[in-house]
Amino acid sequence: MSEIESAPRTVRDVVCGFCGLGCDDLTVETDGRMVRARDVVCPEAAKLFLRRADAPVPQCSQSGVVTSESDALDAARVLLAGAKATLVAGLGVDIDGGRAVLDLVGRFGGVIDHYASEGLFRNYTAAQRTGWLSTTLAEVRNRCDVLLVIGDDPTAVFGRLFERIVPPNPLFASSRKVIFLGAAPGEKARGQLGHADIVHLEPTDLVAALEAVVGGVQGRTLRGETIGGVPTADLAAAAAALKDAGYAVVTWNSATLSGDGGQVGALVAERATALVDALNVTTRAGVFPLGGRDNIIGVNQMLLWRIGYPLRTAIRSQIAEHDGTLFSTAAALKDADLLVWVSAFRPEPPPEFDGPVIAIAHPETRFARPPEVFIPVGTPGIDHAGTVFRMDSIVSLPLGALRVATLPSVAEAVRLIAGEAA
Amino acid sequence: MRVRLTGGRVLDPTHGENGVATGATRTIEIADGRLVEPTDLPAEEYDLGGDIVMAGGIDLHSHIAGGKMNLARLLMQEDRRAYPEMPGAFCGCGGGRASPSAHATGCRYAELGYTTVFEPAMVGSNARGAHLEMADIPNLDTGAYLVLGSDDYLQRLLATGAAQEQINAYVGWMVEATQAYAIKIVNPGGINAFKFNARKLDLDEANPHYGNTPRKVLQTLIRAVTELNLPHPIHLHGCNLGVPGNDETTIATIAAAEGRRLHLTHLQFHSYGTEGDKHFSSSAARIAEMVNANPNISVDVGQVMFGQTITASADYMSQYRNRPLGSPKKSIGMDIELDAGCGVVPFEYRDRNFVNALQWAIGLELFLLVEDPWRIFLTTDHPNGGPFTTYPHLIRLLMDRDFRNAQLATLNKAAQKHTLLPEITREYSLEEIAILTRAAPARILNLKDKGHLRTGGVGDVVVHTPDSDAEKMFSKARYVFKNGTLIVKDGEIVETVTGTTHVARPQFDRGIEKDMDRWFDEAIGLKAKHFRISDGELRGGAGPTILKCERTGS
Asked: What is the pTM of this model?
C-alpha cells in the first residue's frame, strides 16, 4: 500500500448501498485499513461502514479450518459439481457480482433468491396481477402534498427516509401532510417531519382500516363508529385529504408486514394499489413501495433483463423456470443438497441448513456452524467499486472503493470458481 | 482474422451498387473487423454462389433496454413462458417475444441480419440501468436517445426565458452525462403536464404549471440539437398519440419544424382522422403528401402487426389513457424523477377489430405512399406495434402486392372499406428494402462506417439467399458477420460477440455544471456527479464508441 493510500483522509459524497434509499452524501474517514462514516449518516450505515484498523486479516476456511484461497475455490467447485439441487441465496451483491453468480447458476444449475425477497414478492402479488401506478424519490420529494404511510414507522429501517422524501422546501407541493396508518411515528420521524402536518391513526386491523380509506376515496359511505379500530370519521378525513391532494403518495414496507404469513403485506400492497388507482381518476397519485436492502432491486432487475424472470427462479440444463413460492429460499432449502450463501454487504448469517454450505460472504459473518467452504469477500462501496439500484428500481448508483482491497469481490471469487471449471 | 466472401451480388445503395439488378458479383473482404480491399492473402473463404450481400441491418427505433422493458418483462411473465429458451448452448439464457431478454434480443436480431439497434427512449435517471442492460445484449451495437422535454429542469428554463445558449449547455451536459446518442422528445411537455393532472396537451396548449407549449419545447430542442451538431435530428414522438384526429396535430407539427430537420417516429400512431361512422379513419395519404413535400422530415412507421404484444412508452399521459384498452387487463405506470415517466400496457392487436385492422392498413399506406425510401424507416416500434421478429412478414407485405391484398381480405370488413391499400400498386424492390433497413438509417444517424459495403466500413455483413417469398428470405440470414466474426450460419446463432455502444459527445458551455450541481442537490436529492455515467461504466469497462460533435456556430 502506498503512503498516500494509508494516510488519513476524508472522503466526501460517499454513496451508501445498504438499505436501498441511495444516500450519496456521506462523509467517510479512512486511515489505512480503518473506515468510519462521520456525519449525515444513519446508525445502520455507520455500523456497516465501520472497519477497524486492528480487524484480523480474514482467511478462507473449510469446515472452520484455515485453508489457502485456491484450496477453498477447489473445494467449492467440487461441491457445486457434485450437487443436484443447489440453492444460491443471500445474494447481497452489486450488479457485477450478480452477473457472475447468475453465470455460475447457469453453468451448474440451481435456484436463485435474495434473502430479503419476502417483501418484494408480497408486493408482486399486486404488481404482477393488476400492475400499479408508482412514483420515484424525486417526485415524492417535490410533488407530494399528502403522504400515507402504512404500517410501522419506516425510519427504523430507512434512517433518513423522511429527510430525503419530505424535505422542507419542495418545488411544487404547497403543504405537506403525512398520515401514519399503523404504528406511531417515532422521535426520529417526527424530527425529520418537523415542518409537516402529522396525523396518526392507530388501527387494530390495518387491512380493514386501509380498505375503509380506499372505500372513502372510491365514494363509498363508511358506516359504524370505528373500522379496524380507527374512528370512522378519521378514516373518512384521511380519504378526503388524499382525494383533495394535488399529488398523493402511498408508501409501506412489505418486508415488515409479515402478519398472517405475509398475507398482510400482500393485502396492503393490493389495497394501496387500488387506492392509488382510484385517486388517479381525478387527481395524481403514486405508490412508493419501500425496500431495496443489499441491492435486491438491482439483482432483480439484472435477472429480469438477463433471463426474463425475477428472483426465485430455477435454472436447470440452461432452462429457467420461475415460481415465487416454490423457489423462495425457505421452500427451496427443503429440497436443496447444497447452499451457496452470498452476502457481501453485511455479515448476514445463512439460514439453518443441514447440508453443505459454501459461504462467499462478509468476513465478519458469524456462522452457527462453520461452513464447508468460507471465502471472505470485500464489500461493494468500501473495498471495491460497483453499481447498486435504489428502491424505486429506476435510479442506480456508482459505489466507489474507500480502501485498497485485500479480498476478492464476489464477482472475482465466483469467476474464479466457475472459470476453472470450464 | 481475415474473411473473404466471393460470388455475392452486392446491394449497397449508399454507393448506388445493385448487384441484384446487374447480376454482377463482387468480392467482399474483412480484416480486423473492417472492410478492406480484396487481397490474395490467406483467409476464411465463403463462396456465396450469387446470394445477396448487404451491410448489417440497422434499427433506429426499437425498445430493447431500460426500466420500462424490465417492467414489461415483470408484467408479462406469460410472454416469457410462451417463448422459452431456444435449444443450443448459445441461447441458453432468456427468452420471450414481446419483451425478450437481453440475450434473446441480441440473438433474434442477429438471425434477421441486424447488427445495430438504437433504444429510442432512455430516461436520464434510468440511463445507468439502460447501459448496464445494453452491455448484456450480445451481437448488437447499440445506442440510446435521451428523453427530454418533460423534465422539470428544461421546463423551468423555458418558463424563465433562458437564452438558447443556456438550453444548449443543458442539453449538451445531459447527453454527455447519460452517454446518449440523440435527443428524443416524447409527447413534448405532456408527461410533465400529466404530473400536474393535465390529461391531454395539444401542440399549442400551455403546461398548467410552467405555461410552456409543446411547440415551444419542440422548436427550442430542434434548435439545440442543430446548434450542438448532434448526429441525429430531434426524434419526435408527437402529441396526442393514438387519438383520432391527431392527423391535424401531426400536420401542424411538421409545419412547426419550419424547414429544420425533424424525425417523426411511429408515424402510424399519429395519422388518424375522425371520418366515418366510427369516427376513426386513415389520414395516411394526407400525411404522406406532407412528408413528401417536406424534405427536412424523416419518419419511421411503427407498423402494427397482429397478435399479442406489450406497449411500453415514456408517454405516461397517453398510456394512462390507453389503460382500459389493455389485454390482458393489467398495466404499470410511473412518474419518474422530475425527468419523464413510463407506461406499460399489454396489448393484443386483433385482425377482426376495426381499429386494429385499420391501424395495420394505415401503417402500410404510409410505407407505400411516402415516396423517398431514404426518409422512411422500417419499424414496428418494437414491441409497441409488434415484436421486431415480425419484420420478415412486414417486408413481404411491402414487396408483394398480391400477398398484401390477400391479407387485407381476411381483415375486419369495415376496415377494408376505409383503406386505399387495394388501389396502391407499389411493391418495394430489394434495393429499397436495403435502403430502409441499413443505408438510410446509417445516413440519418450519421454512422459513416455503417450501412454500406465499401473499404473502411465496419465488417458487419449479411448474406441472404434470394427467395420469391420475401418473408422466408429475410427470416433467416444465411450468414451474418459482426465485425468480421461469423455469428449466424443458415439462420442459426453460431457465436455470440460483444458489441459497442455509440454515444455523441457535443461541445457545450461547462459553466452549466454549477447550476446542475445545485439542481441535483436541492431538487433531485442526488449528487450530479453520481448521476453522470463515466465511460468506464459502459460495455463492461470497454467504454463507448464516441462521435465528437463539432460546433458549427449558432
From this structure: 0.97
